[in-house]
Specification:
By secondary structure, the protein is mainly α. The chain contains 19 helices and two strands. It starts with about 20 loop residues before the first helix and ends with a helix.
Length: about 400
């Protein structure tokens, strides 16, 4: 991350060299830290508490929202500058990378389960490697802490189909469709609205590859994609108009109001539903699987507030680079998510078995985030802008150093 202040207005957060918005990257980095702290230290730990103190908001929701926002910003710009062919080629490569990343996480979970560490992935172990590999290739063995990329993959594929509508100025139609689908999901959700972690314990115990419905939709639901899409597709529309309407500048101007609104909503949710007189209806307004309305309102408001706050802070802290760990990690949020998902299984197996002491938990949590930051710095040092180009760039560097 350059330390010099870019030319432009005092609140500018975009680097001229790459066009990246450092405030978005910092917000994504905070989302990654939130997930790492929750997965490794626990939501009630001292490390995780600051990013889980706001009721019904977590790093996963922020990750989905910001992914939609960045998609709208980036792909809208590519269509304008490079055309449709380039845009869809890049989208195709991104989908392949996402698929391979989720397959990797699934294979790690399969191996851990077969080795007797099924409690780490919270899934019933498969009986043989063939079944495990088959489920991994179908993305039907999603471990706890590594189960978000399938939903992201689906959203990204659908977003590619919606780009022509956005190009024709029909963003309102995308927004209306998203809100309508969310409303339907809150009233009645058929089985195929649910993303499940596996086909279920019964199927894994006695695999039947002809039972495609159970393979696709069996097991316990972990996400209602028809509800969770309310974070991605409205953000996609906002990202499409991000630069045209100067939404970043508007959010910075509204920062005092966003902070006040966030504080007011926190009080209402915490004293009303979390600990107050309406606690008994909390599942109906804040369930995470079905992403109920309290989560929608809180997540959107908090992410907007955090973006505006980081956008205000970045120009003031750039020279001392205090936000660099968040910015660099957020710039490689997919890599960071995969690293933490693999580490969540690998560390207890190869380094230190659970349960961990307080100090070990803190050290491991910080080390995993440090690993994500170090990886982001490594990619930057090699100028690896896209993950699928990493092998080619590494081979080229090695040949240069050996004089071949």
């Amino acid at each position: 991350m350059p330390t010099s202040t870019p030319k432009g207005t005092a609140h500018r957060t975009t680097t001229p060299a790459t066009g990246r918005d450092w405030a978005i990257d910092a917000t994504r980095g905070l989302a990654i830290w939130s997930m790492i702290a929750a997965h490794f230290a626990g939501r009630k730990s001292m490390l995780a508490y600051p990013t889980h103190a706001y009721p019904y908001v977590d790093g996963m929701a922020a990750f989905v929202l910001l992914s939609g926002l960045v998609f709208g910003i980036v792909y809208g710009g590519w269509i304008d500058r490079r055309g449709w062919g380039f845009t869809y080629r890049r989208l195709g490569k991104r989908l392949v990378v996402l698929y391979l990343c989720q397959v990797l996480i699934c294979l790690v979970a399969v191996a851990a389960g077969m080795a007797g560490y099924y409690q780490l992935v919270r899934l019933r172990p498969v009986g043989d490697a063939g079944t495990g590999i088959g489920l991994a290739l179908l993305l039907r063995y999603l471990p706890s802490g590594g189960d978000i990329l399938l939903m992201y993959l689906v959203f990204l594929a659908v977003a590619g189909l919606l780009l022509p509508l956005l190009r024709r100025g029909l963003g309102w139609l995308v927004l209306a469709g998203s809100v309508g689908l969310y409303a339907v999901s809150q009233i009645h959700s058929p089985a195929w609205f649910a993303i499940t972690s596996s086909p279920g314990r019964a199927w894994i115990g006695h695999p039947d590859w002809s039972d495609w419905w159970t393979i696709a939709f069996g097991g316990l639901p972990i996400q209602n994609w028809a509800a969770w899409q309310i974070m991605f597709f409205p953000a996609l529309v906002i990202g499409w108009y991000w630069r045209r309407w100067k939404i970043d500048e508007a959010l910075i101007r509204w920062l005092p109001w966003l902070l006040a609104s966030s504080a007011a909503l926190w009080c209402f949710l915490y004293f009303g539903f979390k600990t107050g007189p309406w606690h008994h209806i909390e599942p109906s307004i804040a369930d995470k699987v079905d992403f109920r309305v309290a989560r929608v309102l809180a997540s959107w408001l908090v992410v907007a507030t955090l973006y505006a706050l980081f956008a205000w802070l970045v120009p003031r802290l750039r020279r001392v680079n205090l936000l660099r760990p968040l910015i660099m990690t957020g710039a490689r949020s997919l890599d960071s998510y995969v690293l933490q998902a693999v580490a969540l299984v690998a560390i207890p197996i190869f380094l230190l078995a659970r349960p961990w002491s307080h100090w070990a938990t803190s050290a491991i949590t910080l080390a995993v985030f440090g690993l994500c930051w170090a990886w982001a710095e490594f990619r930057r040092s090699l100028a690896v802008d896209k993950l699928h180009r990493l092998p080619v760039i590494v081979v080229r560097r090695l040949r240069t150093q050996t004089g071949r």
